[in-house]
């Protein structure tokens, strides 16, 4: 019976974690370039159950010895193994803002490959993002809304000197006659990246560095100025999944309550028979 408690409780915890991920997706459904997270559930390793018993040997001394007979396998619960971002491209939305940029991908050499803007925080750590909702700070630097610097292909912050600028489809920022290529990084396996709390992506330790997207002649992409990429969250589907997670949580909760009533009956009623 206690095994049933643990199994049902693990189911509640897994569905609660899944609900948190779905809620975060829904919260960011209007965040430009946001990539929804998907959860993968996995059962705990199977346990092989045996029944312990005694077998009598028909001899004068009436000997017996212990033995075990196989009953079968059982899973003792479920857990959220990992959350994986879905890198499917979102739709485009025209904003008319000079500093808004969107990456539009065509066919890629690797079906799961993705192109990112490259940004840098004040500590010098490089991050990657699909959110091109940029702005120009008081010093004329092109930055994200979180204050991270947008980098050029030499790894330096892009400074506009407060001037109007345009961005070509190849990703070159043109300011007062000068042409500054944006740092556009390509990953053939974006799942090697880890999403942080700012919805930025960073390389896992030991992972291969991202390459310049322009160095891959087979890669088709362009940059659209005055456009933003919408999130790829399907709000209708997410609502359905949230209801499903709630129902599954509720079912496991009822199982826990049923086990609790059974234990209460065993203690209060069966105990009196002794």
TrEMBL record:
Name the record gives this protein: Flagellar basal-body rod protein FlgG
Recorded family membership: Belongs to the flagella basal body rod proteins family.
GO biological process terms on file: bacterial-type flagellum-dependent swarming motility
Domain (Flagellar basal body rod protein N-terminal) ranges: 5-35
Superkingdom of origin: Bacteria
PANTHER family found in the cross-reference section: FLAGELLAR BASAL-BODY ROD PROTEIN FLGG, FLAGELLAR PROTEIN
Subcellular location: Bacterial flagellum basal body
Domain Flagellar hook protein FlgE/F/G-like D1 residue range list: 113-174
One Gene Ontology term, aspect cellular component: bacterial-type flagellum basal body
Organism from which the protein derives: Saliterribacillus persicus
Primary localization class, coarse: other
Domain (Flagellar basal-body/hook protein C-terminal) ranges: 224-268
A Pfam entry, by short name: Flg_bb_rod
């Amino acid at each position: 019976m206690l095994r049933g408690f643990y199994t049902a409780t693990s189911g509640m915890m897994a569905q609660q974690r899944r609900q948190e991920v779905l809620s975060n997706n829904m919260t960011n459904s209007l965040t430009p370039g946001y990539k929804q997270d998907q959860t993968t559930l996995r059962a705990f390793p199977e346990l092989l159950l045996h029944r312990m018993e005694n077998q009598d040997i028909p001899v004068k001394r009436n000997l017996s010895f212990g033995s075990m007979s196989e009953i079968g396998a059982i899973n003792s619960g479920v857990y959220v193994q990992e959350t994986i971002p879905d890198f499917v491209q979102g739709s485009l939305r025209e904003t008319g803002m000079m500093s808004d940029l969107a990456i539009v991908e065509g066919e890629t050499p690797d079906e799961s490959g993705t192109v990112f803007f490259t940004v840098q925080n004040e500590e010098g750590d490089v991050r990657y993002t699909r959110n091109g909702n940029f702005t120009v700070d008081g010093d004329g630097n092109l930055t994200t809304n979180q204050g991270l610097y947008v980098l050029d292909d030499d790894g330096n912050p892009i400074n506009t000197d407060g001037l109007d600028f345009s961005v070509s489809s190849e990703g070159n920022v043109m300011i007062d006659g000068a042409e500054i290529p944006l740092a556009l990084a390509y990953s053939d396996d974006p799942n090697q990246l880890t999403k942080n709390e700012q919805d930025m992506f960073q390389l896992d330790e030991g992972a291969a560095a991202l390459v310049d997207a322009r160095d891959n002649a087979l890669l088709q992409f362009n940059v659209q100025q005055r456009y933003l990429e919408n999130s790829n969250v399907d709000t209708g589907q997410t609502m359905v999944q949230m209801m499903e997670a709630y129902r599954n949580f509720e079912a496991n909760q009822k199982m826990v309550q049923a086990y609790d009533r059974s234990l209460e009956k065993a203690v209060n009623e069966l105990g009196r028979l002794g």
